[in-house]
Amino acid sequence: MATNPYDVLGVSSSASAADIQKAYRKLAKKLHPDLNPGDKKAEEKFKEVAAAYDLLGDAEKRKRFDDGEIDASGAEQPQHHFYRDFAGADDGHPYTSGAGFADFMDGEDPFAGLLKRSQRARANRRGADLHYRLAIDFVDSITGGNKRITLPDGGALDVKIPPGLVDGQILRLKGKGAPGTGKGGPGDALIDVEVLPDRRFTRDGDNISLELPISLSEAVLGGRVRVPTPTGEVTMSVPKGSNTGTTLRLRGKGAPRHGGGSGDELVKLKIVLPNSPDPELEAFVSGWGKGKEFNPREGGAS
């Protein structure tokens, strides 16, 4: 890499001040970071060109360099004012200041316009979006609610959970991100929501499902049973002769739909016998002739 500032700008040591400025302007147009976003090689070359112009563009510094009093980096300070000012920018952007280009911003050509717009945009930059994760219960994803996130700095962020939210959905809280600069407003807070599994409910689109244990008596004789839903228990009728696997529908007890209304809760019945042996039940089944004749494995079950 060339270190002699004349070599960096591609001019001779006898070049006039106008020639030096012209060479710098040509290279700056080509290498400026705003014209080469993400190009680290061009950015480093631009810094080198800016350093060279910082020295040769100043008549006193140039004379001292030509006389051997200072080296290519400058006598008193190894960092030139152009990049030093940029490196200390509060927002971390290496080119926040307009210093070093002030003599070019008064022009009317497209490059001058670019520099002016870039300077204004950086002086009024919108704050960054901040990302957070939030785990919520299944029931809260159906009914909605309010949650609070504790931030790393000890602050808090209140989050309103809309009814019907799905796992992986991202909520945007306007203006709750990092502060901006100048007239730039704050960024947003983006909340990545995780819906925790529930031991009772599962979700399929706008519907939710539940497996409900019932007794043999309720299956044979029917009856009214209490059924959990995301909004609380309700009473449901079990028809006579219900089997394990029979699915009943509670309309409107599912997840809210975007267009209005709600899905359903599908209740799948499961016959459960007592844990301890029941002599009375055993005696009945032993004397139940038709029960012995019925073979559910031959497709007789309905």
Assess the beta-strand content as a share of residues. Answer: 15-25%
Major pleated sheet: 4 strands, mixed
Note the overall shape. rod-shaped
User: How many helices?
Assistant: 10
Radius of gyration: 38 Å
- The end-to-end span amounts to 86 Å
Which second-level CATH architecture of the largest domain applies? Orthogonal Bundle
The spatial strand order of the largest sheet comes to 6-7-11-10
What's the total number of strands?
11
Taken in chain order, the helices and strands follow as: HHHHHHEHEEEEEEHEEEEHH
Low-confidence runs: 76-100
Helix content: 25-40%
Could you name the CATH class of the largest domain? Mainly Alpha
User: Number of domains in the coordinates?
Assistant: 3
What is the fourth-level CATH superfamily of the largest domain? DnaJ domain
Mean pLDDT value: 83
CATH topology category name of the largest domain: Helix Hairpins
- The helix/strand class is alpha+beta
